[in-house]
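Reviewer 2 asked us to include a model.

Predict the structure of this chain.
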Amino acid sequence: NVLDGLENTKVGGWYEGAPAVIVDVQRQPGANVIETVQRVLGELPKLQRAMPAGAKLTVVSDRTNTIRASVRDVQFTLILAVAL
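Predicted model (structure tokens):
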């Protein structure tokens, strides 16, 4: 018997005040987090097309922005160290 709803209505996903399905994607130990996120983001258009009309797919958090900034800082520091 399948019911449309939560077994426990006090536990659920909410986004901007509306019920939501939350999917948390995590990399495996040793995996390249930036590459993993790029691959996931590349799949999102296909997932959106497969969703029912009116359903919206939203990336709520992407921690790779700070990781990418840190990598750029290290690259700049290395280039500066070599130049000096």
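The chain has a mean pLDDT of 86. Residues 13-83 form one domain. We have added this to the supplementary material.
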